[in-house]
Write a structure and sequence with these properties.
The chain is mainly β. It is built from no helices and 5 strands.
């Protein structure tokens, strides 16, 4: 499972849906042991109070990735510093 921009989902990712809504991936559920790709993600949308499970990440685009993920930042320069 990958986002529309081909990045693999990770907890803490900020994503955008096709209508421009922003949300945060709060959980990743791994698939079978034969595949390292997530089988499902949970997203908490900024404009809602519930978390929703999705089994297709291709509807979403990665906007930014937190520093704790071990991956490069995408548009979040300077965040997280005290």
């Amino acid at each position: 499972m990958r986002y529309a921009n081909e990045e693999a989902p990770m907890a803490g990712d900020r994503i955008r849906n096709s209508t421009g809504g922003l949300g945060t991936v709060t959980a990743i559920f791994e698939g079978s042991s034969a595949s390292s790709a997530p089988a499902r993600i949970t997203v908490k949308w900024d404009e809602g109070i519930v978390e929703i499970d999705y089994d297709l990440a291709g509807k979403f685009t990665l906007v930014s990735r937190g520093a704790g993920s071990g991956m490069a930042h995408h548009g979040t320069a300077g965040r997280g510093r005290s």
